[in-house]
Structures are given as C-alpha cells and as structure tokens.
Amino acid sequence: MDLQDIIVAIATPPGEGGVAIVRLSGxxxxxxxxxxxxxxxxxxxxxxxxxxHGSLVNIDGGLVDEVMFVYMAGPRSFTAEDVVEIHCHGGQxxxxxxxxxxxxxxxxxxxxxxxxxxxxxxxRIDLSQAEAIADLIHARSEKSHSLALSQLDGQLSQALxxxxxxxxxxxxxxxxxxxxxxxxLPEEDISTIRQGIGDSVDLLRSMVxxxxxxxxxxxxxxxxxxxxxxxxxxxxxxxLLGENRAIVTEIEGTTRDLLEEGLVVNGLxxxxxxxxxxxxxxxxxxxxxxxxxxxxxxxSDLVLLLVDGSRPLDDEDFSALELCRSTxxxxxxxxxxxxAKQALPLGIxxxxxxxxxxxxxGLDLLRQEIYEALISDESRDENSVxxxxxxxxxxxxxxxxxxxxxxxxxxxxxxxxxLATDLREALDALGDITGETTTEDVLSDIFSRxxxxx
Length: 454
Ligand SMILES: Nc1nc2c(ncn2[C@@H]2O[C@H](COP(=O)(O)OP(=O)(O)OP(=O)(O)O)[C@@H](O)[C@H]2O)c(=O)[nH]1
Ligand SMILES: [Mg+2]
Prior knowledge:
Helices cover about 45% and strands about 15% of the residues. The protein has 14 helices and 13 strands. The longest helix has about 35 residues, at about 185-220. The site of magnesium ion has 6 residues, from helix 8. The site of guanosine-5'-triphosphate has 24 residues, from helix 8.
C-alpha cells in the first residue's frame, strides 16, 4: 500500500438510498476535490469540519450531482490525514460517476480497510481499536456493539498498557544488573518483580478466559434444539423468533433439514438451529436429518433438550438425553399448557424448565437460563475487559507462558539474560495485540478482511 496516494472509496453501503458518501484521503485531496466542486457560495479555502453546498462536475465540466462538501484537516480526521467527503444522492449511477470523476482526476481506488490502515499507521488508533471498528460494523446485538465500542474507546489498550508497564519496569530493573555479572539481584528487587509479574499473570489469565464469553458476543452463540419427534422443537423455534418460520404439524418427523435463524437472547447474538426429531427410522430422508442433528451437537455452544411435558418420558427421550451428556445443555419440558400426565423422574424434574410455545409461558425464564448457562458470573461485570478476538487470546496466552517461564527462572536464579529474554518475549506478544510488534503479513491479512471504504 502506497501511503502517499490520494485514495477514494464509497463509504456508504451499495444500493439506493437518500444519501451516499464518497470519501477521499491523503495529502492534496482537498485541492483535487475542490477542482470539481462548484460551491453555491464561493470561497477560497474551505474551513475544516464545515459543510458546503454546491455541485460536483466531471473533468469535462458536466454536472454530476448536487452535493455537500466537507473537508476535515488532518490530524482531526479518521485517517489523521486530510480527508474530503462528498455527500451525493444515493443512486448507483451517481456514485459511480462521482468515483470516476475523482479517479480520472488522479485519486486511486482504496484497498479494503485502507482508511483504517492509514488511521493505524498514522497513530490515530492502535490495532485493537482498528479491529474494533470492524466488530462495531458487524455487531449483531446491543452488547456486541457496546463491547466493540469500549474496545474502540481503548479499554483493552489501557488494560494492556498497565501490564506492559509492569513488565517494562521489571525488565529495566533486570537490565540494570546485567552489566554487573558478579553481583546478584537485590532481594527486595526480586520480591517487587515477583509480585508485579505475578499480578500480571493473574490479569492476563483472566483476559484469556474472558474470550470464552467474548467469543459468544463477537461470533454469536449456536443454540441447538434437540429431542424426539413431536416434542415441540419447531414450535419453540417459532415462539422464540416470534414468527411462523418452521413447519409445525402433529405428524412425527415433520422437520428433516437443519433450519437456522438468527435472533438476540438477552443481549446474546444467537443462531438457533431446529432439527429433525431423534428416532430410529427406515426412511432415508429422515435418517439423514437425524444424522445431521446428531452431528451438530458437539459444535453447539448450548443444547436445548426438549421433552414433551404432557407425556411420560420414554426410551427415545432417555437416549436423546444420553447424547447430550458431554455438552452444555438445558432440559426443557414443553406443552405446559396441557396437564402433566406423569411426574418426571428425579434428577430431571428439578433441572427442567417448563414452557409452553402455545401460550408463551416460561419463555422469559428460558431466555434467562440460556443466558446464565453461557455467561459466567465474573464476566457479567460491566467493567471487566472481554477479549472478543481469537488473535488477541492467542497473544495473551503466549504472554502468560513467557511470564510463567520467567517466574520459574527467577526462582531457579537463572542468568539475568535468560530472565530478560522471557520478559521481552512477553512484551512482544502483547505488542502484537496493539500492533506495535505485528508483522506486515499479519497486518495486511487483518485489514484485507475489512470492507472497501472502511
Ligand atoms: N398444546 C400445545 N401443543 C404444542 C405446543 N408446542 C407444540 N405443540 C404441538 O405439538 C405438535 C408437534 O409440534 P412440532 O413443533 O412440530 O414438534 P417437533 O418437535 O418440531 O416435531 P418434529 O419436527 O416432527 O420432530 C404440534 O401438533 C404442535 O401444535 C405447546 O406448547 N402446547
Ligand atoms: Mg419440527
């Protein structure tokens, strides 16, 4: 990527809309854009962060559209460079003519993520913040949105900063003694270092664990509806969605394919999967459906195991239960609007949540149970940092490994060079999250996953 170029891209989604925005960034973009802008009230120099009304003309002087023009002088802009935005009418033809005008005038089409990349390279945001912008755009629930916002706000960067500061302090104490090989580290320095690094290990470990929760918000939860035929899986799917999505009949074996739909449950973005009722069948289509249902169990974050609450449990229910033993699951007793025919066996009755898809009874409780089964107590704290990226988790894990190795080496009084190396590696690992030590390859991989115009 050449950072000297003036880049241009459509900042708004494709398609028709009231307004579309074309954005330019780079040294000289104001002069370039101004050549094609005829302001309604003439001016020499646009004032930064001020909207001007006028028209946009192409290189032959032909009218393209009535537009608004805004100039944001660097570094007070998204990329920290000079930025111009043209707000035109949101038609595909108009937008492509505006783009063509600027490209003919010398701007280059921006690569995916190039605006964010420039913001990062120019020090406006660190890497974790750039990634937060992508998360923010893709957020599917309020909570995912607020997590991305706090990462963009620098909450993760700050938490990392306090760790790197501790590690840097330890490193400078050790480096101060490297030049005096015949002397040992003073005991009080050792205990300060041990305390500080020990605390860092605890903090980083809790960050590493927080990914278990953070992942659910960033990637979404996969929630599987399971149970023998006719227990009411498809009815529950429809009730949770609030729409008539899946076919419901009183015939056993109605659902065959996996049916997937997205929804939000207590702030968690969820992919709900309805499945074929589990039973032995001679019908090849139904058998395939049952196989697909079983194969989904291990990759689901949570299984809702449904039993018909209006009937006694039978062998098919118990074999369905058996399938869930090694996963995270909740037992749901359906059809609570009908009278229970028989008391449920001990061990099941106390774990079971009674619902009726027909009346809606118990659905709020079920949503709460789903949330509690997935989100641990400690990660419900609004102020704790949640890692939402696997890349960040891997880096934090590596840092923990280095620091644990360091503490062992400190106990064994290994050479100071050894100790210093472990600390430097831990710092490198953490720098990978904020982008300080991230290699070009990884950077271009991260930014290429952004959409064009971001
Ligand atoms: N009274 C009552 N009937 C229900 C309730 N939920 C489902 N049913 C009925 O139970 C029958 C089966 O419902 P489905 O939702 O199709 O059951 P399923 O588990 O998806 O069945 P398969 O797709 O065949 O595995 C239908 O006749 C529904 O109307 C409920 O809460 N109350
Ligand atoms: Mg069904």
